[in-house]
Amino acid sequence: MQPGTTHECDTLSAVLSMRSRTARLTSATVAWIGLIAASVFIFQSEHTLSNGRTAVRAFDITAREASTALADARAGQQAYVAAGQGVDFWMPKVGSLLEAAQAAVDQLRSLAATADAREALMNAASQITELGNMDRRARAYLRAGHPLMAGDVVFAGGVETAAEASRLVEAARVAEQQSFDAAEAGSRRVAMAVGGAAAGLGGLLLLLVALSPAGAPDAHEDPAEPASSLGLTSAATLSDPPRASLPGLKAAATLCTEFGRVKDVQGLTTALGHAAEAMDASGLIVWMGDARGADLRPVAAHGYPEETIARLPAVPRSTNNAAAAAYRGGTLQIVLARPGSSSGAVVAPLLSAEGCIGALTAEIRSGGETSDSAQALAAICAAQLVSVLAPPPAEAPADVAASA
Q1: Which tens digit of pLDDT belongs to each residue from 167-180?
Q2: Which residue has the higher pLDDT, 217 or 42?
Q3: Is the pLDDT of residue 398 over 80?
Q4: Sign of the CA dihedral running 251, 253, 254, 256
Q5: Cα R_g (the chain), whole angstroms
Q6: Are residues 256 and 398 in the same domain?
Q7: Does residue 11 belong to any structural domain of this protein?
Q8: Domain for residue 70, yes or no?
Q9: Cβ atoms within 10 Å of 29's Cβ, excluding its own
């Protein structure tokens, strides 16, 4: 064996043994850094998707306004040659409608993010210009006393031109929506991969910390001298947080094991009861929807009478409450307790491979909703509930299957 190889093996053994206090603290720090970095990445990804969703909604509204203006202009042109209609009323109205349609298409061209949408809108603008030219010809025929020729322009060319312009505007709207849907799906796949990798790394490092033997003194410490004589009394304090976190890790491990063994409703109710004890929660409710955004409905609970759960109404995804907010955004929600009036709550989203499919609400006693441990346990329970309640995906994406 080469000397360099021996040195590398010794270094690897020292890291894996986790006997040094410094190594344990370093591993815990790396785990936290990984989790924080993943959280920042996911937050930024969700912020970008939110901005994109707002832009697509604005594009959709403007496209519908353009289509409505074109339809009204087409009807107004037909009124030119209809018996009993006032031409003096319809001509200015059609002119203003064509101007509104042209302005809406120009605005859509500035908002379009895809080449297909921009090309369709450019053609739509040309069609609206041609429709305006036809409108001027029809007006000229009417002023000259030739209503039949005006009707020929309106019905033979105007109707088809207006319909083609509306079709092009709709094609641009569909292209923008499809582009955003594809970008959103890709962003969520990347965010889930990053979150899973960070959680896996953090869990592995924390597990090594938890299973490691008592820390041996670092190489620069003299075992014969007490720590106080070296001015290192704070080192003992630094070793306390990993020891203090062991009960929380044990509780989380117990809950994960129990949720993994759930086979029926009774087993799920029992697991929820133990989760409530671990979080010091007076009650838990599991709300289920689906990745397409169906209304939330309670499917399991602990700490509430059955008749109370049976009377709970469905919660639409757009409702202004914490459960719907967690369902919409896929993020943990905190409801702070008000003194003397209500308990606080923690709401954790149920995130599956297809998207958010529900939420877990936990009513926490004594202001414990701000506790990191209660929030972490709620998130862990929500993740375990996904493995129990989520339907299997219809078809795994090719890149995910290749990674597996």
Answers
A1: 999 999 898 889 88
A2: 42
A3: no
A4: positive
A5: 32
A6: yes
A7: no
A8: yes
A9: 11
CATH code, domain with 180: 1.20.120
Runs of H (alpha helix) within 81-213: 87-111, 115-143, 147-152, 159-211
Q: Which of 354, 294, 365 minimizes the C-alpha distance to 324?
A: 294
Q: Are residues 282 and 371 in the same domain?
A: yes
Q: Are residues 174 and 269 in the same domain?
A: no
d(CA 213, CA 221): 18
Residue written as tokens 């001298």?
225
The total number of structural domains in the chain stands at 2
Q: What is the CATH number of the domain that holds 376?
A: 3.30.450.40
- The residue out of 139, 162, 188 marking a domain boundary is 188
**Which three-class secondary structure state does DSSP give residue 381?**
helix
- pLDDT, tens digit, 9 for 90 and up, residues 231-286: 333 333 334 444 445 676 888 888 888 888 888 888 888 989 999 888 889 899 99
| Cα 359 from Cα 290, distance rounded (Å) | 10
Q: Tell how many helices (H) and how many strands (E) occur in the chain.
A: 12, 5
Q: Are residues 249 and 114 in the same domain?
A: no
pTM over 0.70: no
Give Cβ neighbours of residue 282 (< 8 Å, ≥ 6 apart). 276, 303, 343, 363, 364, 365
Contacts of 74 (CB under 8 A, 6+ apart): 158, 159, 162, 163
Q: Tell me: do 151 and 274 sit in the same domain.
A: no
Question: Phi, psi (5° rounding) for residue 203?
Answer: -65, -40
d(CA 83, CA 6): 101
Residue ranges making up the domain that contains 372: 245-403
In eight-state DSSP terms, residue 86 is: -
